[in-house]
Amino acid sequence: MTYLDTDKQTCIDLSITDGVQDEQALSSLFLKTETKQGKSLMMEWIMYPLSDWEMICKRQKLIAWGALPELPLNEEELDFIEYYLSYRDQIREANVIMSCATIIDRLVRYDSQRYVVCRGVKLIVRMLHHLEKWITEQQEIVPQLWKDMIDLVQDILHGTELKNVLQQAFDKDTRFSNYVIDKYDYLFRCTRLLSLKELLSVIYTLDVCRTAHRIAEEKNLCSTPKVVWSMDFSVEGVVHPFVKNAQVNDWEMSQGNICLFTGSNMAGKSTTLKALTLAVWLAHCGLPVPVKSMVCPLYEGIYTSINLPDSLRDGRSHFMAEILRVKEVLEKAGKGKRCLVVLDEMFRGTNAKDAFEASVAVNEILKEFANCHFLVSTHILEYAKAFEKDSSCCFYYMEAEIKEDCFVCPHRLRKGISEARVGYWLVKKILNL
Description:
Elements: H1 8-13, H2 36-47, H3 53-64, H4 75-86, H5 96-101, H6 103-108, H7 112-136, H8 144-158, H9 162-166, H10 178-191, H11 193-219, E1 226-228, E2 234-238, E3 249-252, E4 258-262, H12 269-285, E5 293-297, E6 301-305, H13 318-333, E7 339-344, H14 352-366, E8 373-377, H15 381-385, E9 393-398, E10 401-403, E11 406-408, E12 413-415, H16 423-431
Parallel strand pairs: 1-5, 4-8, 4-9, 6-7, 7-8
Antiparallel strand pairs: 2-3, 2-5, 9-12, 10-11
Helix pairs in contact: 2-11, 3-11, 4-7, 7-8, 7-10, 8-11
């Protein structure tokens, strides 16, 4: 698989695994799996989005499929199997004489190690029979990823010594002899350990997909956003996944490769940028997205500059940190990759005149990266107006106005450049000037 390139700063800006400034982590939206290992796999999917169109589509279609089977065992049982398979004591080939010789000793003396072996063996036999049922009950038309998983299960169950275990009749009352337990134990923990690990990975993938499907239905997420090879980029009904009663917005990259977002402070520019970027991130994970519908390019990289820290240790000002971050991002985009780059209020760490001139200069550079999309927010309206007739740019703004001496901010996204100037009014209102 090919993974999408990103970096630590982007993960921090988007709160992918850890919340920043009281924000919820994106991962918390989906970490509701039925198993611990399923949770680890879900976290891996979220932390490492793909740039693999085929695998993204496979994940989407399986998650959207409404006929995923139940897990063969519950969380505690699967955890016990994991513990048993990692248990390295008393692994030896089965021997009839030795098994018979220890019968009386095992009857009169409790052996915790033996309990682990006996229960682990029985749980795996039960798991194998459930997986065999998956194979025999498979529908004719199924998503490709599920077919791939079923084919893997088929090859392992019927192409290895595990097929002999399936010949063993089994139900909840089945009792195995010491010899059978010893024989299966050696098979499971030694001969076919890696095969069993592969079967467990299938179960955890099922857990991840079942969880994503359930959450998509509960939260009305789109399970099949369209990821395309072209540079088409549009969303309908996008919201930030953690904003309550969020305003639904539509947006599209109508022209060029740069979209400038204007609007007053507190109008919601940063939240909207994050909502769009998180939608792209989740789409590249193959997971459901908080939109009604979406078309986005298959990107090779996502980079952001939103919450940059000062560096006291290096004596680096916020303005210098912004300059270095822009340089770092452009160097990565300059390698010819198709990237989504988000720059939230560039050069806020300097005076208005310097910020305007620096933003205009950077915007001229961004125009050269036709293979990338740049989402740039600014409260410097003169910067946006400098490119108003430039075909490389499109424009959106967040609505905000003073109405009946009140600050009204509906968080609606509109095409064009904002004319709202509410900063001075807010200062007077709050400071009672």
